[in-house]
Amino acid sequence: MNHTKLKFIIGSVAIIIIATVVFVFLLFEREQQETTAIVSPDNCLPAFRDGGGPYYEPNVPFRDKLVPEDNEGEKLIVEGYLYNEDCTRTISNAVIDIWQASEEGEYEEEYYRGKIVTDDTGYYKFETVVPLGYGEGTAYRPPHIHFKVFVDDIEIVTSQMFFEDVRGVEGFEDEYIIELENNNETWIGIHNIVLPDYQ
Ligand SMILES: [Fe+2]
Description:
By secondary structure, this protein is an alpha+beta fold. It has one helix at about 5-35, and strands spanning about 75-85, 95-100, 115, 125-130, 145-150, 155-160, 180-185, 185-190, 195.
């Protein structure tokens, strides 16, 4: 085998290897994009509006973890996407302002509240504990998490998200309930928020 032929073979093999690596890389990239593509919820129901109640505090910090370190509640991570009214797009850079009762069913001034911002894909996530319901008799409130959503500093909605115990109860549509899954002592809750009257 002469020198030129050898160079040709080595060159060809190198090109095949590089082409294969590039092909596999592109394939992997494409799969990544497909798996992270945003899927609209099956049932696109906008959040209901309510008055927010007496426990809202406007100037709470931005933080992903709402509870104090020494809490005794069941750990809960809530995550989901924020959608426009007909779920054709997600809303990035919106502020979700959250407040809830503690694991003992009480509101506190400092904790069990906080603001989070949706990322570039409209995704949000926060860590908290499962709240306890509160009130007696007909005034009983099942466990819930209050939230307001602001887009460009304008309030779009005040609403609440609930837990499994109200499934099937009139007025508590399935879309308002956090879908829970237990993972190593932590509840993972999926909850998409659909903004009413907002395109
Ligand atoms: Fe409440």
